[in-house]
Amino acid sequence: MHNKSLQCLLAVAVVGGLISLSGCGEQKPQGFSSQQLTDMLHLVMESDRAVYTKQVVNRLKEAGAIKASEHFVDDKALPLPAQMFRFGAETVASKTEAFSYSLQSLWPINKQNAPRTEAEKTGLQFIMDNPGENYYVEETLGGKRYFTAVYPDVAVAPVCASCHNEHKDSPRSDFKLGDVMGGVVIRVPLGG
Amino acid sequence: MKYAIWGLWLSTLLAIGGWYGYRLLAGEDQRAFNPGPLSAGHHQLEQACGACHVSAFGGGELLQQACSNCHGAELKAAHDAHPQSKFSDPRNADRLQHLDARYCVSCHVEHAPQRTLAMGVTQPGDFCRHCHADIAEERPSHRDLPFDGCAAAGCHNYHDNRALYEDFLVKGADQPLLKAIARVTAPASLADKHPGWRQPTTAPRADAPAARQTPQALAEWLGSAHGQAGVNCSACHQPQGASWQERPALATCQDCHAGEAAGFFAGKHGMRLNPELPVRLGPMRPALSGLAFAAASAEHQLSCNSCHGAHRFERASAAVEACLGCHADQHSRAFEGSPHQALWRAEQNGSAPPGSGVSCATCHLPRQLAEVQGHERVLVQHNQNANLRPNEKMLREVCQDCHGLPFALDALADPALIRNNFKGAPAQHVPSVDMALERARQ
Which of A176, B159, B201, B397 has its CA 20 to 30 A from that of A43? Predict the structure, then answer.
């Protein structure tokens, strides 16, 4: 009985060690598929940005407290929701290679945010053509395999559409509330 | 005979090995190991390989860390337009094949003077093409512009675009050559520096041993900010009760002037003394620089006192005379007789209001707002290289105190005008403001 308990303890320790090791490295957490992982990451990103847009930017703008501006440092304003999203992506990029994400569009204000890889181009078009659906694919970039997921990015507040419609660098000026304006692309490196 | 030759060979080998080994391990002048001269930005450090090569056992990441240790904060403050994190996204993997912009050394290779361009760039001048080849599609005005001109004066900077972005240009388009109230930021008063401080009603009594007091030192100290603030002899000469120091160490100044010291250590004047360098170097001397200096100043060692002068710590002379005591290049020598100098003289002789004069320090060691111990105060940026190159970095924090943006852009883009210290009008016109206005109109 005593030996059995020890064996159980040892087994728990080994499994625990493996799980913690996998969390420290570049591998996805045990037990989740790549798609589940990117779905969860996207859920957090989408929720945080919607909350920032509605509860911070919109609310404070309506209260006359502070506005959001593309040049938020010079204008002493809030970063735009899309900027906050990108800053988050850049901060993550400076801390880990375990995953990466970006905000892209077929009608980007900054042309560097247009789709570049084949997966991005196909994925951005797919989410436009298939409302409510996501796009998942594997691709090879720089000799490495990635699981790439593309999620629709929807105008959650009127200001999303109006800001893009009025921006001088926007190639499109007829966005409406609820429109898919672009896509969130999340990549997870695959082992091997 | 055979043994003698072997012995000679061995002892020669040991002597050479010993000499190199001593240089390497004793941390003395290590230029013998230098594969080529360093760029203008780093030449002060070429005696110490370890300033950049922080470990003998490390690759590119360690070198990158060394770059970040000295330049990271500056880039962050400049809202770096091309940070490393923008390029580590796998979607840019194909671009990294051409130019791995995740690493500073991809564009700033050292020990390669034959291919080093301005700002220490070692890439061909048209490197922007790698990512912006289709720029003319969205900016028809750029259709016939060469890619090696993107970073030309007044257009774009790779890292710091705070004074060049389109909406900023539009906002400043109507600014006149000279603003109605052209003033530089006022220096911090003692009350600003130390909230709650009040001017002593009586002159402080010097606490230096009588044998060390001289009439001149006493008079200079009493007239200085130190004397007025009650900072006594012992505060500098016997810090924390130490024995008397004839020449107080830089660290003693740093105890009270941490912000100023941080700037000094970041610039070329003080980088050799930076306590965070992994190697110890002596103070900077003009003889170590490649610029033009007065011959008599060649061995002048740079510290706080070399510009501020012990006991007097006088601001005005540190702002002009101290600089011109060493610097003898064309731009420095042309300060004499320049419009800026005329304004400086007028302020100094009281015929013009405070803040209306322009000294060397006005532009090269500008006063900036900074948070010190929870209080916002005016601090002199003692890193005289912080806004020097690309020179558009001067626009916001210096030129625009007095001048409108379009004139300042043109002036900074005219090398001849800079050399003669702005005697005359710009001979060049930077079209970027016009282009920004044109797009705004469209």
Answer: A176
